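Colleagues,

For the teaching module next term, I've prepared a clean inverse folding example: a structure given as tokens, and then the sequence designed for it. I'd like students to try predicting residues themselves before seeing the answer, so please don't circulate the second half yet.
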């Protein structure tokens, strides 16, 4: 599927319902059968005399030795057929409408703000929550083997809705809480700052140190990864969370959201 200002709605709907009907150039997949009985499929990243390198549907890079390839065939789209079957008719309409707006000037255009778009959500499994009950909520900033973090992403406008985040309970309070975090990568030292859309219901730590309640948080940063961990009291906050990097006047610091998935 090719998404952009020139993409027509009928093409988008066709691509959602029949992913292999019109595959974008350079996104064709190939299927390789090897002499040990394995079958590998993916988009070809590169090919040499010794190996064929594929990117599969799980975004993994796979190297297949040319000497082991017995058969090669054209494949289908990496997007599975039937992916939209769980959607209602109205949800499919909303999805196609949203995709049709991408790449155009309007409410879904990506602006110049340095918004936090990649987050991680704390997975409240019993062993992990037990540690927090046994210690304190701030222990969530620690590096425990029982702690797991799941990738989540902001909407186009930078807002992170709270209603789909995993919730757990603390005793005695907060009764319903969810925890997220994001990371920044600083390459040049100096004053840097982030701004929240509001601090209501938030408890924030930067690199495991508590942050004073304020919509704008500024600090003198040094090169490396800065981790912000945010506990959200859902009884005190229902509005989505939004955070952005803002410039500090006369600062030579260089910082950006950490790369990753």
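(Answer key — instructors only)
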């Amino acid at each position: 599927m090719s998404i952009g200002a020139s993409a027509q709605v009928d093409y988008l709907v066709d691509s959602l319902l029949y992913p292999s009907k019109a595959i974008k150039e350079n996104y064709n997949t190939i299927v390789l059968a090897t002499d040990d009985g394995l079958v590998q499929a993916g988009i070809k990243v590169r090919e040499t005399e010794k190996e064929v390198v594929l990117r599969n549907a799980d975004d993994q890079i796979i190297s297949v030795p040319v000497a082991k390839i017995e058969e090669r065939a054209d494949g289908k789209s990496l997007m599975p057929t039937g992916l939209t079957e769980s959607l209602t008719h109205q949800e499919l309409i909303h999805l196609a409408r949203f995709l049709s707006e991408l790449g155009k000037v309007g409410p879904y255009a990506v602006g110049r703000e340095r918004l936090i778009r990649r987050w991680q959500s704390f997975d409240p499994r019993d062993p992990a929550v037990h540690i927090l009950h046994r210690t304190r909520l701030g222990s969530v900033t620690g590096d425990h083997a029982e702690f797991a973090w799941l990738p989540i992403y902001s909407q186009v406008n930078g807002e992170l809705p709270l209603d789909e985040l995993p919730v757990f309970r603390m005793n005695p309070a907060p009764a319903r809480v969810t925890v997220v975090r994001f990371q920044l990568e600083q390459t040049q030292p100096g004053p840097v700052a982030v701004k929240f859309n509001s601090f209501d219901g938030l408890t924030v730590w930067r690199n495991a140190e508590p942050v004073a309640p304020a919509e704008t948080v500024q600090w003198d940063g040094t090169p490396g990864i800065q981790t912000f961990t945010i506990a959200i009291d859902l009884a005190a906050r229902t509005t989505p969370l939004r955070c952005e990097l803002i410039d500090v006047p006369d600062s030579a610091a260089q910082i950006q959201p950490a790369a990753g998935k």
